[in-house]
Input
Amino acid sequence: MIDTHCHLAGEEFEADLPEVIARAKQAGVDAAVVILAAQDDVELTRWQRVRQLWPEARAAVGVHPHQAGAFATDPEAAARLLGERLDSVPDVRAVGEIGLDYHYDFSPREVQQAVFRAQLQVARDRRLPVVIHTREAEADTLGILGEGGRVETTGVFHCFSGDAAAAARALATGYYLSIPGIVSFPRASELREAVRTVPRDRLLVETDSPYLAPTPLRGKRNEPAHVVRVGNVIAESLGISSAELDALVSANARRLFRL
Output
C-alpha cells in the first residue's frame, strides 16, 4: 500500500518519527508521498530526516491556499519560490498541495486563484503532477484547471469526500481521486457509493495524516500505517480483496508519481 498524501515532515511527528515510520512499514505501507509547504524552511529541513528514515518516501511541494495571502501583492512570487524549491528539495515528484479553500477563507479568494494559476503553470512547465486541495470551491477549481479549453496537467484531487456526481466532475479532468479515512465514517455512505464509480485505474488512497484518522481511531492522531484501514474499507465497498485493492492503488500511485 502507498499513502499518497501525508504530512510526515510536520511538527506532529517530530518526537516519534522513527516509530511512526516503523509502524507504517510493519503494516505493509511501502512508500508515501509527503506534502511540504514551499515557504516553511523548518518543514523542508525535517524532510531530510524523513528521507533518511524512509528512503522510499517522495515529496510534493507547493503553496497551500491558506498561505496564498503572503503573496497577495505578487502572486508570481509563489511560482518563483516553487521553482526554487523544485530545484533544491530532493525527491520531489509533484506540485502540491495547491488549490482553493473557500471554507476558511484564510486568504482572499482572488489571491488564492492567482497563486493557484501561477503554480499550475510551473507544473505544466515542469511536467509534474498536481496535488489539488479544493474545499467548497469546486466550480472555481475546475474552471481554473480547464482554462484555455482543456486541462493541461495531470494529478490528483486529494482527500476526495464528495458524492458520485462530484466524482464524475472531478474525473472529467483526467485526474485521479484519492480517498481518505472519511470513507470509514458511519455517515459516509455517499462517499462509499462514489468510490464504486471511480475507474480503478484512477483510484488512490491516503491518510492526510496527522488529520482524519479512520474509524475506530477517529479523533486520534492519524499516521501512514492507517492507510491500510482506509484501503480495507474501500476494498469492501468494491467487493474485492484487500490484496487486490492494494495492488491496483499501488500501481496507480507509482504511475502518477513515478515512484
Notes: The chain has one domain: 2-257. The chain has a mean pLDDT of 97.
